[in-house]
Amino acid sequence: MEIFWYIIIAIVLAVFFVLDGYDFGVGIIHLFMAKEEKDKEVIAKSAGLFWDSNEVWLVAGGGMLFMAFPTFYASVFSGFYLPLIIVLWLVMFRAIGLEFRSQFNFTMWKAIWDKAFGVSSLLLALFFGIALGNVVRGVNLGGVENGVSLYEKHYFFLPLWNGSFSPTHESPGIIDWFTIIIGLITVVTLAIHGANWIILKTNSSINTNLKHVIFKLTIVQLVLTIFSLGIWQFLVNSNSLDNFFSRPYLLVFPMLYFAALFGLFRIHKISDGQAFTLSTLLIIGGITSSLASMFPVILPSTNTINESLTIFNTSTSQYGLSTAMGWGILGFILLFVYMIIQKRLMGGKIDDMDYGH
Amino acid sequence: MEDMLFYDRMQFAFTITFHYIFPQLTMGLSFLIVFFKWNYLRNKIEKYNDAAKFFMKIFAINFTIGVITGIPMEFQFGTNWAKFSELTGGIIGQTLAMEGMFSFFLESSFLALFIFGEKLMGQKLHLLTGFLVFLGSWASGYFILATNAWMQHPVGYEILENGKYVLTNFSALFSNPWLLPAFLHNQLASMVTSSFVVASIGAFYILQNKYVEHGKLFLKTGVIFGMASSLLVAFPTGDWNAKNVAKHQPASFAAMEGIFETEHAGAEIVLVGQPNMVEKKLDNKIAVPNVLSFLTYQDWDTQISGMDKFTEEELPTNIPALYYAYHIMVGLGTIFIGIMSIAIFFLWRKKLFTIKPLLWTIMFLFPFPYIANITGWYVAELGRQPYLVYGLLKTADGISPTVSSGNTLFTLLGFIGLYFLLGMLFLLLVGKAIHQGPKTQTH
Predict the structure, then answer these.
(1) Which of A216, B44, B61, B149 has the maximum number of C-beta atoms within 10 A of its C-beta?
(2) Predicted ipTM?
(3) What is the mean pLDDT of each run of 10 residues along chain B (443 residues)?
(4) What residues of chain B lie within 8 A of the CB of A346, using their CB?
(5) How far is the alpha carbon of A254 from chain B, nearest alpha carbon, in Å?
(6) Domain boundaries, chain B
(7) Is residue A328 part of a domain?
(8) Which residue range(s) make up the domain with A15?
């Protein structure tokens, strides 16, 4: 039953990163690439029309995590207090930028909110990546100092950084050079994904140029991935790849990731839809590989005194989990129906559509 | 420890108060939008369709800000109330996760279709999408009230040896005797807010002599629904809730009614007065004898326990705040019924659209139902103190053990700054939509 909810929540969060991921990516591309007002308008719109229904996936995933693994929810949300609240602020600031840019037709008004949208998208991608980096690196559970736990064994609190910025420090901070690398990988991944979305959904004048950018970013992505894997295995956690040796079928996830990554090198030859599918698979492969490498751990402990959090020691009762499975299945069927209806009515390129009344 | 609790409570109070400005309008407004659209399908008069689309624009602005100020509410359970989440997440997580699953997906999927899809879908499907948005927003209210009802009156649970609360009976969460009255009261209060906003915009257009035909429709609709919901929010639903408090939280009941001393026979109802916590009495009191006993038990002489019957431990922590919140809510509710009755009278005499003082009054009335709604929630939340889960889990025992007060104050200040910006932009956008009027349909 724990495994069922683990998979469901992983799927919901993966969908969130695929969906909201493209509008973060659109923001990043918007910040660096969009120069003419016509492009800025349509690119912002390609995120602006969908962001709020995409963010519902975050709310839903959060709710399920709360219900199924309350101890994990409590531990992680209070332990990563500052970055999570900063993420919330960025989410709001970004939404303000998106919603308000087209309200007035002044150059300066638009310029301000364009920057708000672009910069907060970039920082959000970076912070979500840093968060993922923290989860795979692990934290000092129980706040152990000199062999004594300061808190209950499943609680911790991380400062934004400590002086060393080192992932191997006894009590690492949220931002260290390993988590920053994971943050950069996330920024690059989402930029590729967002660029594919813009090509797919708009007729902006930078579309051809974006394909060259995607090609270059794919090279960067490959280099960063190999670099981070090396650091992870040899410096941060020498057991990080053990799961893949003991359960070789889990290798399907990293294979998915690398297949998608190599597929993207053919960006000039494949169709726009195929390219978007590849960047979608890249995100899914990245997330599932990270989760599979840790399973059934969901937050590793960096000390030897307190055990890591797993899906089994943080879950609620079997009765709660199985009851929720009942309504969960019903909910997903309904959701599937909504998505089909929405898809049928909202396909096609943004600028070809009449979104007036 | 003391100031950790203080800042955690301040941040939650601030963010939830600001958040609830938006859903309280959208829940009621979605009902009125469906009403306008349904009328348009029946009578094919264009201004009804204009009204539906105009208010959907107002709805969309409120919905957007409701979503982005709602995410911090869910997050704060984990960030600031970790112990509470750890212990009770297996129960309240059910209703909160169901809210995401059954209402947010519904609402967000069909809102986009309602706003962009009128031409694509045709009128009947357009009405249906509007109805589904309404359903989603009311379902959201239902799940939140189910969560709150469990905190007010816990049912269907078991406490394990390690202190964790686990669910033993799923359906008990929804048959909780606290839930239905609280839900109906809350939804009707939301109808009051939205009806008053619709009436206020109508009065504004009539007084401005712009979009007068639309203005008349808004005013008439707002006044009729405003009258009905103002009455229903007081009786039977408000009354029903008060009886629930008297039965399940008698100490909170005494505090909110301002009864310091138990009387031998029937209890008086306090209309005005200031709680004096030093001398344990009300200053400048105006009260009517025996009425409270009659309202609560339909008997003039039933004894009602005053605050003297309870220990310090059992009483709410902030009695004056609870007392004022309750009296502001009830006082405003009474004024609403009065003003709406006058408006209905002149509507019946066909003079409503020409009496300027009344139009001005209605125009300026719209902030007050917001105050009544929010003070109503304060009554529920302050009345439950010092508990998070009534009688079982103290608020002080629910906070995050590792988050220092300095960190919480930092984020509270950040929220204040950001919400100030958000509030200004909200007013700007709604003002712009009202200025553009119901006829211009620019996106």
Answers:
(1) B149
(2) 0.90
(3) 88 96 95 95 92 92 90 94 94 94 89 82 89 95 96 94 92 94 96 97 95 95 96 93 92 92 86 90 89 89 89 91 95 96 95 94 96 97 94 93 93 95 90 86 42
(4) 112-113, 116
(5) 30
(6) 177-379
(7) yes
(8) 2-352
